[in-house]
Specification:
The chain is mainly beta and 276 residues long. The protein is built from 2 helices and 22 strands. Helix content is 9%, strand content 41%.
Length: 276
């Protein structure tokens, strides 16, 4: 005679189902991030998608992170907290995403801030970061000292989204991004030689205090250059063909040098008295 299932049988079946679901979930999850860099104990460790860059590093063509698209964050800067910071040199190579994550996410910068450069000074090469949600993202105190020699384009949201103080952003081209081309906020930042074109919102946004700004911002759907905060120095801006203002200024006490603004919906706009 066939016996009826007991409470223990039901509990056993339930546990088997739960364990099966956990095994399937673990199999679907990506492997945890590893550490990579040129100066690792035991020698160079090539960077793969999702890795933490923890030492000075120059990417090479055979590194996995530049050999195939990354489905999430490509690289995360995570130098030791007691270091002065590290340099990530992209070696003139490209980092490609699949529409999500950040090309480079800065989690920690060391005591003085880290550097992201597109190529070696010797040959003047540039690198590209594209098809992520955001090209470069950094938010925190003293994360970055410098970002330069990069093309950042066709990202779902912003090209650069940097919230820190004392960073120099130079020789960066940011175009065809789904929101803003370059966003920099904080105190004492320097934005020079930035070219931001064909972005779906503003080409360049600089907010905070004491920044220096020199840029070319054209053919963006909203404003070319937006300045907010207090006491920023707009040294040179060339801004043409934007759907909003060529230069949009909020805040107060911004000084203005040479402005070449034409062919925009309005050439200069914003809060009355924002510009000295």
């Amino acid at each position: 005679m066939r016996s009826s299932p007991t409470v223990r049988d039901f509990v056993t079946l339930r546990l088997v189902a739960v364990l099966g679901a956990l095994v399937a979930l673990a199999a679907a999850m990506p492997a945890s991030a590893g550490d990579c860099g040129d100066k690792m104990e035991g020698g160079r460790v090539a960077c793969s998608c999702g890795d933490n860059v923890v030492t000075d590093t120059t990417l090479k063509p055979g590194d996995p992170v530049v050999s195939r698209p990354c489905s999430g964050d490509a690289l995360m800067l995570f130098p030791p907290s007691n270091s002065d910071g590290i340099t990530l040199d992209l070696g003139g190579l490209s980092i490609q995403g699949t529409g999500s994550g950040s090309g480079i996410k800065v989690l920690r910068g060391g005591k003085l801030g880290s550097l992201i450069v597109g190529g070696g000074d010797a040959n003047g090469s540039r690198a590209a970061i594209y098809l992520f949600s955001t090209g470069i993202r950094a938010s925190g105190r003293s994360l970055l000292r410098e970002v330069r020699d990069l093309d950042v384009h066709d990202n779902k949201h912003d090209g650069l989204q940097i919230r820190t103080s004392g960073v120099k952003v130079s020789n960066v081209n940011s175009y065809a991004n789904g929101r803003d081309g370059v966003v920099v906020s904080g105190h004492g930042n320097e934005v020079t030689g930035v070219v931001a074109k064909r972005n779906q919102r503003d080409g360049l946004q600089v907010r905070g205090t004491g920044a220096g700004i020199s840029a070319e911002t054209s053919d963006n759907r909203r404003n070319g250059t937006t300045v907010g905060g207090r006491g920023n120095d707009v040294t040179t801006v060339q801004s043409t063909g934007n759907g909003g203002a060529g230069l949009h200024a909020n805040g107060a006490d911004h000084s203005v040098g040479k402005i070449d603004s034409s062919g925009n919906s309005v050439d200069v706009a914003g809060r009355p008295g924002a510009l000295k």
